[in-house]
Automatic annotation (TrEMBL):
SUPFAM superfamilies: TPR-like. It comes from the Eukaryota. PROSITE patterns: PPR. InterPro entries: E_motif, PPR_At4g14850-like_plant, PPR_rpt, TPR-like_helical_dom_sf. Keywords: Repeat, Transit peptide. This is Pentacotripeptide-repeat region of PRORP domain-containing protein. The keyword Transit peptide applies. The lineage of its organism: Eukaryota, Viridiplantae, Streptophyta, Embryophyta, Tracheophyta. PPR repeats lie at residues 5-39, 106-140, 215-249, 281-315, 382-416, 483-517, 518-548. One of its GO terms (molecular function) is RNA binding.
């Protein structure tokens, strides 16, 4: 083999670097140095390009040092290669120092420096550099114009105002026309991208139509532009037109369409686009994961994450936060713990975005103590983190702790959001504490959230659960904008407090306002009907759901109707409803029927209902207690004892209830035989004698279908 010299090494290193194997190129460079051959400016340019491609900053700095040693640091070819390497490695400070030390920067130098500044977020500096380039007499070429247009595009997403950013872009566009660069495809694509990022998709379309030749990049930019402004149908139209013009969509096309579909909340189409991408990046996976989270399809989020793991795609901070959110919503603690472990391995557990997700997941999954430990270890906390811990405490009825954290949040200078207030107001509702609720209402007024529908709905719910329907209605009537949630809370409040007629009256008034009812609205009004004996009204409302509003009745709606009919003793109609409904295996239906049988001493139908609950919910004590009560009311004490014995033999235990009262030192809980000295959260026991004599089976005839 002929002796290898610098020329042969340069040729091979440059070829390997261009072939997409920058790591191999760096290895060959080390081999060249080991043979004692000095690099030339061509060698260094190829190696620095490879360093930039793989962001090998340390290797790049080593090359820089060698360039100084062999006297090539003043070579413009090497200087530009160094400049490009530093900008691609994200070391803007090194790039600026190098550029400022250059004796005669040319158009390549200015272009590389502008791109680096824009990439690092120093958009102002990039634009000033372009002005300096024009003043210094350096030739402004299409590549430089493309670079500054990229900076203009980023300006809109940065600290600039949209108006100022558009003005900047338009002045550059004028320069493009003046210099005759409008026919250059790269310049045209940069102009389109800039206008697309400005949300000026009409201007982007004009540039597109003026281009003498169109590439797949041009089509992709246009699709992205329409997607960004929410014109989903137009983006699909452009995709079809692109294919009709002979262009095959590439992975960028499908990624852009995926993002567009997610923005349009069309997750099935987004999934179809995703499946056409051969090697999705972590960003692409995250886009689809975010779509599932957005649509509350959390099980799909988990399954997609499992697939991502199987394909060995490393998760990033966004991935972990999304999965933690789904674990939180579904209450999947074990997977949440696995994600926590992964975040530690990836050194992402201290990232505020991930840490917020961990606090939320643990608190929502009942591990409030763990959530507090993570919260306390966080060096930075934003309002999202405070809301997560407060919400978790409130959900698990740790109401006093929630109030303490809310107080600390304000003391730490955090301004409560609508989520903060909704959680705290919910705590007041759970405590049925009017004094604390009024205090929170006063703070809501002070902070200007009284017209926020989210907070307003929580206030209505709080007053209703505290039994104060006058204040609930007063606040409801003062709301300027009412969404369906506010209407539902008010109707439900009337229903739960025994004002069925007012619930129906408000429901009918709502219909006159053109507010369309939803599934929850019908649960509320049907509850009002059942609690007030408005049976015929309940039947009419139930029948109108599907025919008038296209709402398919759920088990909750059937339960309300059965409750209304059962309370009225109309058991023939109850059996007809149960016979037709698709929810025969839901125990709550039979519990409602059994409760009605207790009221009307209907042992035959009560036995049937109890038998279904024994099968569907074996550890539920209610059917034993209720059936025993039916027998006792009919003087069948032997059967009542047999039911109690059966309950005991199956290990079914009746839970002990407790109540809350307001006390001068805060809320207190008490159970049977307690005094009011028991603090919230302290357990109290009492003895209860149970009849366990005569273990016998309860024999139930097949008196109803199911």
């Amino acid at each position: 083999m002929p002796e290898r010299n610098a020329v042969s090494w340069n040729t091979v290193i440059a070829a390997v670097a261009r072939s997409g194997s920058p790591g191999d190129a760096l290895g060959m460079y080390d081999g060249m140095l080991q043979e004692g051959l000095a690099p030339t400016h061509f060698t260094l340019a190829s190696v620095l390009s490879a360093c930039g491609a793989v962001a090998a900053l340390d290797d790049g700095r080593r090359c820089h040092g060698l360039a100084v040693k062999v006297g090539l640091d003043g070579n413009q070819f090497v200087e530009n290669a160094l400049l490009s390497m530093y900008t691609k490695c994200g070391s803007a400070d090194d790039a600026v120092r190098l550029f400022d030390g250059m004796a005669r920067p040319n158009e390549v130098s200015f272009t590389a420096m502008m791109g680096g500044l824009a990439q690092s977020g120093a958009v102002d500096d990039a634009l000033r550099l372009f002005a300096r380039m024009s003043r210094s007499g350096v030739r402004v070429d299409p590549v430089a114009v493309s670079s500054v247009l990229g900076a203009c595009a980023q300006a809109c997403a940065g600290e600039y105002s949209v108006v100022r950013a558009i003005r900047l872009g338009q002045s550059i566009h004028a320069l493009v026309v003046k210099k005759g660069f409008g026919l250059d495809q790269h310049v045209g694509n940069s102009l389109m991208d800039m206008y697309a990022k400005y949300m000026e998709v009409g201007e982007a379309m004009k540039v597109f139509e003026s281009l003498p030749s169109i590439s797949i990049v041009s089509w992709n930019i246009l699709i992205t532009g329409y997607g960004q402004v929410g014109l989903y149908a137009k983006a699909m139209e452009v995709l079809d037109l692109m294919q009709q013009s002979g262009f095959e969509p590439n992975e960028v096309t499908y990624s852009n369409m995926l993002a567009c579909c997610i923005k349009a909340r069309d997750v099935p189409s987004a999934r179809a686009m995703f499946e056409k991408i051969s090697k999705p990046s972590a960003t692409t996976w995250n886009t689809l994961l975010s779509g599932y989270c957005q649509e509350e399809q959390h099980q799909d989020t988990i399954e997609l994450f499992r697939r991502m793991q199987h394909q060995n795609v490393p998760p990033d901070r966004t991935t972990l936060a999304l999965i933690l959110s789904s674990c939180s919503r579904l209450g999947i603690l074990e997977l949440g713990k696995q994600v926590h472990s992964a975040s530690v391995r990836l050194l992402l557990h201290n990232d505020m975005f991930v840490a917020n997700g961990l606090v939320d997941m643990y608190s929502k999954c009942g591990q409030v103590a763990v959530a507090q430990i993570i919260f306390n270890r966080m060096t930075q906390r934003d309002v999202v983190c405070w809301n997560s811990i407060i919400s978790g405490l409130a959900i698990h009825s740790l109401n006093e702790e929630a109030f303490d954290f809310f107080k600390q949040m304000r003391e730490n200078g955090m301004f409560p959001t609508e989520s903060s207030y909704a959680s705290m107001i919910s705590s007041c509702a759970r405590l049925s504490s009017i004094p604390q609720g009024r205090q929170m209402h006063a703070q809501v007024l002070k902070d200007g959230y009284d017209q926020n529908v989210y907070v307003g709905s929580a206030l209505i719910d709080m007053y209703a659960k505290c039994g104060n329907m006058d204040d609930a209605r007063l606040f409801f009537d003062c709301m300027i904008a009412k969404n369906i949630v506010a209407w539902n809370e008010m109707i439900h409040g009337y229903a739960q407090n025994g004002f069925g007629e007012k619930a129906v009256e408000l429901f009918e008034y709502m219909l006159t306002t053109k507010q369309k009812p939803d599934s929850v609205t019908f649960i509320a009004v049907l509850t009002g009907c059942s609690h007030t004996g408005l049976v015929d009204e309940a039947i009419a409302f139930f029948n109108s759901m599907e025919s008038n509003y296209g709402i398919t009745p759920l088990v909750e709606h059937y339960t309300c109707l059965i409750d209304a009919l059962g309370r009225a003793g109309r058991f023939v109609e109850v059996e007809a409803v149960i016979g037709k409904m698709p929810y025969k295996d839901d125990p709550i239906v039979w519990e409602v029927l059994l409760a009605a049988c207790v009221v009307h001493h209907n042992a035959e139908l009560g036995e049937c209902a109890a038998k279904h609950i024994f099968r569907l919910d074996p550890k539920n004590p209610s059917p034993y207690v209720l059936l025993s009560n039916i027998y006792a009311s009919l003087g069948r004490h032997g059967d009542a004892s047999a039911v109690r014995a059966l309950m005991s033999s199956r290990g079914v235990v009746k839970g002990r209830g407790y109540s809350w009262v307001d006390h001068k030192d805060g809320a207190r809980a008490f159970m049977v035989a307690d005094d009011l000295g028991t603090n919230v959260g302290q357990s109290t026991t009492f003895s209860e004698s149970e009849d366990t004599s005569g273990i016998a089976e309860v024999h139930c005839d097949e008196t109803c279908a199911g």
